[in-house]
Amino acid sequence: MDSKEIKQLIQNGEKIDVEFKESKNALTKDVFDTVCSFNNRNGGHILLGINDKRDIVGVSEDRVDKVMKEFITSINNPQKIYPPLYLLPEVFEIDSKKIIYIKVPEGYQVCRHNGKIWDRSYEGDINITNHAELVYKLKKEKWAEVLTGHFAKQQNKMSKNNNKKCSHLPI
Prior knowledge:
By secondary structure, the chain is an alpha+beta fold. It has 4 helices and 8 strands, in the order αβαβαββββββα. The radius of gyration is 20 Å and the shape is globular. The termini are far apart.
């Protein structure tokens, strides 16, 4: 990700995979809901220092390190985020203001924030913890991804082994 791509994300606005958080002086607590939502969906981009109107307000220069440290500490705390995530926020300077960019990948386990399960719908994060049908659907999708990946690896491994066993035969 570079400054040009960050500006494009800002210009295009919030979507199912893009979220802005003002976070000028402190980390907004709902950022972790968004992290889980993105991780439970298809991944996404979080930009700290941008408001909902797409204005670049920036994270105060003297608060950037504190905001990043709090974010990294929280996502690695299994009491807060489960499973803990390994994310690397990046700082960009746009229009002489500091922006923190966080890329959240799609997860293969259901992600929880403070024990709650979050999902993403268009531009919002939805707590689906008490909606058994939605939780079941999310878990089913995650398990399907895990099993599909597992079987694909097994099939690939078997294919390689068969090629080795037959490599001596003339074609």
